[in-house]
Design brief:
Layout (H helix, E strand, L loop, with lengths): L1 H4 L5 H19 L39 H6 L1 H8 L4 H19 L4 H21 L22 H5 L7 H20 L1 H11 L60 E2 L10 H12 L15 H9 L8 E3 L5 E6 L7 E6 L4 E5 L9 E4 L6 E6 L6 E6 L3 E6 L4 E7 L5 E6 L6 E6 L3 E6 L9 E4 L7 E4 L6 E5 L4 E5 L12 E3 L6 E6 L6 E6 L3 E6 L9 E6 L14 E3 L2 E8 L6 E6 L4 E6 L10 E4 L5 E5 L4 E6 L1
Antiparallel strand pairs: 1-10, 2-29, 3-4, 4-5, 5-6, 7-8, 8-9, 9-10, 11-12, 12-13, 13-14, 15-16, 16-17, 17-18, 19-20, 20-21, 21-22, 23-24, 24-25, 25-26, 27-28, 28-29
Helix pairs in contact: 5-6
Amino acid sequence: MSGSCAAAEEKAGSRQQLQVKVNEYKENQNISYVSLRPLQTTVLEKTVKVCLVPFSLSSYKSDQLKLPKSLLDKNFNNEVTCKKCKKTGINKTCRKILISKMEATTSPKAESTLQKSSLDVHTENNQRQHKSTSDTVILSVDMESSQDGNSAEDATSSLDFSGLSPYERKRLKNISENANFFASLQLSESAARLREMIKKREPPESKRKKPKKRKNGTGCRRSMRLLNVDPSAVSLPAVPTQPTLVADENPLLPPGPLEMTPENRDDNSELFKGFLQTWAEVSKTSSKNIEKELPSIKSYKANLSGMVISEDTVCKVTKGSVFSMALHPSEIKTLVAAGAKSGQVGLWDLTHQPKEDGVYVFQPHSQPVSCLYFSPVNPAHILSLSYDGTLRCGDFSRAVFEEVYRSEGSSLSSFDFLAEDASTLIVGHWDGSMSLVDRRTPGTSYEKLINSSLRKIRTVHVHPVHRQYFITAGLRDIHIYDARRLNPRGSQPLISLPEHTKSIASAYFSPLTGNRVVTTCADCKLRIFDSSCISSQIPLLTTIRHNTITGRWLTRFRAVWDPKQEDCVIVGSMAHPRQVEIFHETGKRVHSFLGGECLVSVCSINAMHPTRYILAGGNSSGKIHVFMN
């Protein structure tokens, strides 16, 4: 009975040891509910209070354990509280807890007994809670009472909180008071009543009254035009609604040769026959004249200043925008050819008066004519290339447009003569490919199809001296190729000019020696390169600032060389008053052609006569403006 003699002194220490042991049991056995802290819950009906008193069991066996009389007398009041429970099972449970706790304070061997008894208590309590919901038993271990005299709860007032700090005692007291307060509010019952009261009601549909239609009334006044009634109050006949077939704007022309039938005149007239005879008999300029020395800049400026324009030298030749232009090299007559966006090819003889009698329009293509050249060996032949994939040769002596080349798969953009006798051609496609065409072989197919490194090809031009070289203008790159090294699978250029930052419109060699290259770019710059030595690089000589932004409705500018003065380029202008400008390769402006009232539009495409001082410019409405001395 050594434990009973030292109970008062070791009360706090033994209670702390019990708390540690039970916590270890909780961690090892993973039991969901074991607590040494007071549980504050709402007491529904009855509460069982268990008071644990530690004492020694050194001289007693577990099966012969009897409580000392002194302890029974000391804790008489607590035992009376336990006896108030009606069910005998609760008394047995309390007795097991007392035995297990006393054994835990004496020796370490009692740990297993404490664990088993605690587990049995938890299991029995769970079974009793399922059997009877009327009685609620709350077992509290290590409970201490707070010294609050104003509390209305018996469980709170009877607990012993001597082993807790003031903060913990205050906290437990607040928890108990808050639980009692919320229980008194009966929030769950109020929420249930509110749910019954609130019923979801769908918003009533707003039925708008529709205005009644007047059967006999006329309603609002309406005009007879809107009522589809003529002034005589008689209804007009109903227009039959039949599906109309929309014709293709640009139908492809049949393959093969086409007759030279003018669209603006009768083809059987004597005037048209005389016109064809004139074009067939005119002679071109001799090549010996081209080998003469170039005139000086002073004399060249003086000759340009003598070129004027008048109403007689302005005439509408084609329908739609002018996309290409060429001047016949005749020394006797002034003959101008223009290719239009509509696929027309217009021919104008300026020696005829009135001027309308000298204009003849033909339709050899169905889409824009982007390139136009007179044959360098036969002045009676004019070659035209179109977006519709055809390349035709107009023969004025036979009054027929022969088909030279047809591409079914892709659209054509430009061409030039590889040979001086015009027997072989290099043709550029919009998809970036190139075709070698030999006019001496029968048929209209190509000799070789080459895939270039460009995505698109806008212009193709052959070197005037070394004709194996030709230059192509792509989207943003300028490439120079050697015709002897073309590979159908893919050809790499000899030289690339990557200085351009925006879309390129054209690139041309100088006409006599090919020592210069001029390019037109959408970055408002004209660039001139030195191509006198075709090697790995071609240096840039001059950059000329020039407005090349023509917009959507105007044909893009293409700067071209003057055949008589290969160090000067001709280009259209967006400046006011409207004009055509000529620049020297150094970047200086040489001359500006001003027409006054005769030139009130932008001439995007321009061409100069190879030997005479005659300049022809075409605008976006099909008009041709000719400056001549």
